[in-house]
Amino acid sequence: MDVTEKIKLVKREPTEEVVTEEELLNLFNTNSQPKHYIGLEISGFMHLGSLILTGFKINDFIKAGVKCTVFLADWHTYLNNKLDGDWDKIRMVSKYYADAFKMFCPGVEIVEGSQLYESRRGYWLDLVKFSKNMSLERTMRSMTIMGRSAEKDKIDLGQLFYPPMQAVDIHTMDLDIVHAGMDQRKIHMLVREIFPKMKWKVPVAVHHHILAGLGEPEPISNSDSDFVSSKMSKSKSASGIFVHDTDEEINSKFKKAWCPEGIVDKNPVLEISKHIIFHEFDEVIVERPAKFGGNVTYTNYQDLETDFAQKKLHPSDLKATVSKYVTNIIKPIREKIVLTEELSEAIKKTT
Ligand SMILES: Nc1ncnc2c1ncn2[C@@H]1O[C@H](COP(=O)(O)OP(=O)(O)OP(=O)(O)O)[C@@H](O)[C@H]1O
Ligand SMILES: N[C@@H](Cc1ccc(O)cc1)C(=O)O
């Protein structure tokens, strides 16, 4: 595959930014198998954002010949008080995440935080060195990468290690490409600023779109908090579509979704059409009775959005269509991911 084709795959939806494209071009020109990672805290059930949209992007990287890793950040999970900080639960849920990604992204490598830290003794020295280059103020401002804010949350000393550890993970894995949702861009920009001073390899950062939750978006002006507050998240079960939801649950969640007639901005149902459905299907058929205009076929997202904006497509028809297509995407995934009673209970009781 030529370099232009590889870049096209990396930049394809749901990618929102590549920092920088010039560096990515240089990387592909000089390295036939660059190393990528995306890291996840392991806590709740996997959803459309964390497994499916993220997995679409990982699969694009794999197609482009990139060596992909999903990093299961077990120590970060512990630091962030997820799963009650109970290591038996963390290990159990970690296996569930590993199996889900191995199934959805064939060829991806899985690395656990604890495995990395045990095998690289130099990690802790690098963490100390890195922390000398990171101000306390900057550390506090990066708390958004763990879904917290220094103003609202009581932060313990352990949590202050979270952002510099995430940065040192990147150096320790010797990565060329760091990938995450837009909510993680702060730490990657920090890495790009500090690593050159330490003479560490500077990775290209690729950030994908953050899928919004199904509820009404929260009115927040600060763009960084915006990603965090309205995103589909494993901590908010009503606003997310989880890979284990039944057909009925998916349908009922879409029925309740925020989708005012003619409103395109921050409309979560349109977002799912764009980033999930049109990623998988070349055409989408809206089925409706002749008295409401009859069936209509869309071969691209833009036409669907335009019809919705012009009130030619009603929210209930859009919701029913999106619900049907999402169910078709989720069904085969749901069947392949084993969710034992014990695992399900462990997750439910702690999220
Ligand atoms: N709604 C989403 N859309 C796209 N990507 C997402 C979404 N939620 C999480 N991700 C991405 O998946 C990776 C793991 O995120 P994370 O472990 O914080 O999941 P989460 O569901 O947001 O969890 P939490 O509820 O604890 O905030 C990150 O790179 C993040 O950007
Ligand atoms: N901060 C990431 C998790 C993560 C942790 C460590 C990493 O090296 C990478 C990612 C999240 O909330 O999703």
From TrEMBL:
Its EC number is 6.1.1.1. GO terms for biological process: tyrosyl-tRNA aminoacylation. GO terms for molecular function: ATP binding; tyrosine-tRNA ligase activity. It catalyses: tRNA(Tyr) + L-tyrosine + ATP = L-tyrosyl-tRNA(Tyr) + AMP + diphosphate + H(+). Keywords: Aminoacyl-tRNA synthetase, ATP-binding, Ligase, Nucleotide-binding, Protein biosynthesis. Pfam families: tRNA-synt_1b. Gene3D superfamilies: HUPs, Tyrosyl-Transfer RNA Synthetase. GO terms for cellular component: cytoplasm. The keyword DNA-binding does not apply. InterPro entries: aa-tRNA-synth_Ic (IPR002305), Rossmann-like_a/b/a_fold (IPR014729), Tyr-tRNA-ligase_arc/euk-type (IPR023617), Tyr-tRNA_synthase (IPR050489). It comes from the Archaea. Signal peptide: none annotated. Belongs to the class-I aminoacyl-tRNA synthetase family. This is tyrosine--tRNA ligase.
